[in-house]
Specification:
Keywords: Membrane, Transmembrane, Transmembrane helix. The chain crosses the membrane at residues 21-42, 78-97, 109-126. With 127 residues, the chain is mainly alpha-helical. The chain folds into two domains: 1-47, no CATH class; 49-127, no CATH class. The chain is 76% helix and 0% strand. It is built from seven helices and no strands. It has helices at 9-14, 18-35, 38-47, 50-66, 77-95, 97-105, 109-125. The longest helix has 19 residues, at 77-95. The two termini are 32 Å apart.
Length: 127
C-alpha cells in the first residue's frame, strides 16, 4: 500500500492545482446557494464592511503561507508594489466613503480592476 493513500487533508490541500482549487471554490459557492445560506452570508458581509476585508487578508495569508516562496527576498520589487497597492485599494474601498462612491460611479470597470488586482496579488503570493 502506498503512503499516498494515507495522506492528511493538509497534505492534499498543499498539492492542489488551480483547476482543483477553482472547482472546490465553485462547489462551496453552489453549496451555499443550494442550502439557502448565500443570502445570509452576503447580507452579513455587506452589513459589516470589515468582514470581507478580513477574509481577503486571511485568504492572502493562507496563500502566502502555503506557497513555495515564503521568503520576501524571492519577490521582485514590482510584485511588492502590486501587493501593497492591492492592500491599499482593498482597505480604502472598505472604509472610505469617497472611494466607495468613486467605485460605484465607475462600475463595472472599477470593480473589474479591483478584482483583477486581487487575483494578480493572489497569484503573486501563491507562486
Amino acid at each position: 500500500m502506498s503512503s499516498r493513500h494515507n495522506r492528511s487533508a493538509l497534505d492534499a490541500y498543499k498539492d492542489l492545482d488551480i483547476g482543483t482549487a477553482l472547482a472546490l471554490m465553485l462547489f462551496a459557492v453552489v453549496g451555499l446557494v443550494q442550502t439557502g445560506l448565500m443570502l445570509d452570508i452576503v447580507e452579513l458581509l455587506t452589513k459589516y464592511k470589515f468582514l470581507p476585508l478580513a477574509a481577503s487578508y486571511g485568504a492572502y495569508a493562507v496563500v502566502f503561507a502555503s506557497s513555495g516562496t515564503r521568503n520576501p527576498s524571492n519577490y521582485h520589487p514590482i510584485e511588492w508594489v502590486i501587493v501593497t497597492l492591492t492592500a491599499v485599494v482593498m482597505t480604502t474601498n472598505a472604509f472610505m466613503v469617497e472611494v466607495q462612491t468613486a467605485v460605484s460611479n465607475l462600475n463595472p470597470w472599477a470593480s473589474v480592476v479591483i478584482m483583477v488586482l486581487m487575483i494578480i496579488t493572489g497569484a503573486i503570493l501563491g507562486k
